[in-house]
């Protein structure tokens, strides 16, 4: 059945293309114009073996002897006869396209001969899903189920009847799938619409928060920065003016007027000594962030650090707990990818759960020029999560004081991307305190 379907009759367009290819191939092999070319001028423009014009010219130039242009045999012009072979061959070629239809159909007709025995395929074996010849019937595996072998026409009618009986099922299924497709399109539209609505609301709320933060910034600047800035600018202008007047007075010759101006300028400078400078207060940077929770901070002060590393004391600190999480600092010597010894400091999540894509910032001790080290990483429960890696103790400058052998390290990271995620964590923490274990659902988080 499958073989018959695969060898179905070609579509008319494909059939025309094949006919054109076959005709071009035939004309490329047999060139009728060359076959019937004039023996004198070799031009195939007329239907004679000799062109009439060529013959007349031939005989007029040879009045004394009239001979055949080919064999030079004595021959009068009245002995030449009209030849229709050229015309008939061309007429036959013109009829070829109609014959090519039959040829193409013959070439593309379904397989009717057994590939194994060369016999005509007359039977169909249903278990093997295969067309058979008579010889195939007595070979393996077909002879094991002869009762399920039938003639081709009978088998085709049987399966055609099955197809016809299933038309109602196919129609109903097509209708169901069409309705489902429309329903899915409607669901997709509703989801996009709802998502756009939420995005619009979030965007509006974010814009309101940003505007409020900017207003708060301006209020703080008007209250704490602008008054001091105005006084500083005023005093700066006064000092500049005094210095300019002093330069100008130095260029003048002594007289009563210059004397009085010099006295007054000295008095202004004397008063400046008692005038207090404006004080630039330490700015209050504690702005309220209504969207992103603050960083979590851990501080570690490890004494005898190098000795603990040499003595293979991996655990360096006591446990520190923050809102349901418990952390511990560990350190050890290990090998890097190139086989070189390195010192690794790891943060272990003793209690809590896995947190992904965390931006971990490691701060050195205060008063050092070493920049904080930043790493984006996953904090996995009960695993050594490497936060710092050094080639030796000397490279730990800024974190380790070699004289006292004390490691000073502050680690900041944000466990929750938004207050929504923190609320989810709170539910988990409350449930855990109540004896209910559940894994917090934190899908779609992005760390900042």
Automatic annotation (TrEMBL):
Alphabetized UniProt keyword annotations: Metal-binding, Zinc, Zinc-finger
Residue ranges occupied by any B box-type domain in the UniProt entry: 109-145
UniProt-listed Pfam families: zf-B_box
PROSITE patterns: ZF_BBOX
Keyword hit for Zinc-finger: yes
SUPFAM superfamilies the UniProt entry points to: B-box zinc-binding domain, RING/U-box
Record keyword Zinc present: yes
GO terms of molecular function: zinc ion binding
PANTHER family in UniProt: E3 UBIQUITIN-PROTEIN LIGASE TRIM37
The protein's name: B box-type domain-containing protein
Native organism: Culex pipiens pipiens (Northern house mosquito)
């Amino acid at each position: 059945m499958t073989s018959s379907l695969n060898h179905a009759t070609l579509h008319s367009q494909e059939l025309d293309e094949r006919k054109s290819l076959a005709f071009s191939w035939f004309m490329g092999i047999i060139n009728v114009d060359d076959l019937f070319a004039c023996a004198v001028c070799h031009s195939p423009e007329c239907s004679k073996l000799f062109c009439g014009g060529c013959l007349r010219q031939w005989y007029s130039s040879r009045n004394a002897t009239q001979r055949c242009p080919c064999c030079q045999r004595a021959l009068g012009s009245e002995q030449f006869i009209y030849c229709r072979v050229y015309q008939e061959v061309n007429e036959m070629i013109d009829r070829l396209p109609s014959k090519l239809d039959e040829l193409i159909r013959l070439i593309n007709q379904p397989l009717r001969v057994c590939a194994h025995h060369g016999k005509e395929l007359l039977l169909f074996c249903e278990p093997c899903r295969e067309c058979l010849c008579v010889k195939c019937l007595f070979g393996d595996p077909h002879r094991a189920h002869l009762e399920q072998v039938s003639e081709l026409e009978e088998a085709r009618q049987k399966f055609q009847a099955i197809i016809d009986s299933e038309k109602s099922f196919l129609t109903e299924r097509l209708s169901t799938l069409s309705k489902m497709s429309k329903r899915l399109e409607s669901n997709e539209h509703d989801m996009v619409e709802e998502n756009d609505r939420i995005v619009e609301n979030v965007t509006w709320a974010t814009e309101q928060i940003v505007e409020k933060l900017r207003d708060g910034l301006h209020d703080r600047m008007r209250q704490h920065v602008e008054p001091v800035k105005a006084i500083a600018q005023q005093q700066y202008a006064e000092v500049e003016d005094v210095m300019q007047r002093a330069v100008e007075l130095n260029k003048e010759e002594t007289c009563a007027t210059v004397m009085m101006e010099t006295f007054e300028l000295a008095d202004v400078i004397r008063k400046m000594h008692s005038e207090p400078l404006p004080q630039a207060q330490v700015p209050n940077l504690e702005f309220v962030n209504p969207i992103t929770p603050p960083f979590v901070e851990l501080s570690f002060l490890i004494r005898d650090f190098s000795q603990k590393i040499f003595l293979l004391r991996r655990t360096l600190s006591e446990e520190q707990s923050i809102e349901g999480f418990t952390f511990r600092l560990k350190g050890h010597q290990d090998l890097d990818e190139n086989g070189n010894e390195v010192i690794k400091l790891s943060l272990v999540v003793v209690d809590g759960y896995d947190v992904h894509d965390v931006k971990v910032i490691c701060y050195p001790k205060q008063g050092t020029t070493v920049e904080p080290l930043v790493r984006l990483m996953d904090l996995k429960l009960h695993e050594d999560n490497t936060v710092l890696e050094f080639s030796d103790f000397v490279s730990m400058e800024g974190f380790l004081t070699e004289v006292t052998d004390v490691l000073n390290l502050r680690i900041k990271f944000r466990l929750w991307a938004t207050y929504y995620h923190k609320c989810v964590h709170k539910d988990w923490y409350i449930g855990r305190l109540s004896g209910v274990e559940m894994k917090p659902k934190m899908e779609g988080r992005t760390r900042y």
